[in-house]
Amino acid sequence: MSAALTVADSKRAFHRAFPFVIAPLYRRMVDELLVELHLLSRQTGFQADPLFAVGLVQVFDGFAQGYRPEQQKQPLFAALCAASGFDADLLRQQRDQSIAAIGHHSVEDVKTWVDQQGQGAPEPVAQALAGIQRSDFHYSRLMAVGLMALLEQAQGADSMDPAALRGYAHDLGAAIGLLRERLDKDLSLYASNLEKMAQAVELMEQTVAAERRKRERQQGISPGADAPPTGADEPASETVTSVPSAS
Fold it and tell me: What is the domain range of residue 61?
């Protein structure tokens, strides 16, 4: 991406690629990811490696839960990526390959790869670990989310206490040169805001359903008979959520 391009340029490119109305509940998420990706695209030491890909897809999918209409969700992700010069299809491919690779190994295997600086790790993981060792490496909070998401897919992770698994992620991050305090802050913020977003989506769906039932009663329609899709009636909730942002 040209160094002359601004955040405003990226936003204009996004809206050209995605000329649809975005429900108020999701506008904050879209705006923050637009800024995040724009800033990262201008960092000379940043590389869109598998760790970043896993984190970005995890964040988008988590905060876009309940997005309507459903068929616009992937075009939305593609437009967000393209606005700053990223390839959405390639990032999802990296994410899928990394998740598949980690699923064949245990949490202890991951620790061994970290201790050996990537030696013996599947290619997507080895690439991510090698990238962190670069002298010009640029950290993104999305990488913290990516590290946690990968660990959750490892064999044995589902039997671990969530707090213990998160502590494991902190230890691994520190071992590969990431600041433990920063990882803890980024993962805490992500988990907290993801929970708030889930609650907001649930409230929105309950409100839409209640409004639909009210209209049906007023119109003398039996509840549930030929009801309009939920996306058309979303209330303009301005619930504030935050996603990991660039630093």
Answer: 47-66+88-203
Task: Note the pLDDT tens digit of each residue in 200-226.
Answer: 778 777 777 888 888 888 887 655 555
- 103, pLDDT greater than 80: yes
* 223-232 average pLDDT score: 50
Cβ contacts of 95 within 8 Å, gap of 6 or more: 50, 53, 54, 56, 57, 58
Residue 24 lies in a domain: no
The pLDDT of 181-191, averaged and rounded, is 79
- Residue 7: inside a domain: no
Residue 226 has a pLDDT of: 52
Residue 34: closest CA among 52, 10, 63: 10
User: Is 99 domain-assigned?
Assistant: yes
The strand ranges marked E within 36-152 are none
Query: Looking at the chain, how many residues does it have?
Result: 247
- Between 74 and 206, the more confident residue is 74
Total domains in the fold of the chain: 1
- Rounded to whole angstroms, the Cα distance separating 37 from 33 reads 6
Tell me which residue of 65, 43, 73 sits closest to 143, measured CA to CA: 43
**Is the pLDDT higher at 43 or at 88?**
88
pLDDT at 238 (0 to 100): 42
What is the pLDDT averaged over residues 104-132? Answer: 82
144 touches 178 (CB < 8 A) = yes
Burial (CB < 10 A; 0-12, 13-18, 19+), residue 233, is middle
Q: Is residue 20 part of a domain?
A: no
Per the listing, tokens 């984190």 go with: 55
Placement of tokens 């109305």 in the chain: 21
For residues 210 and 233, the answer to whether their CB atoms sit within 8 Å is no
Q: What is the CA radius of gyration of the chain?
A: 20
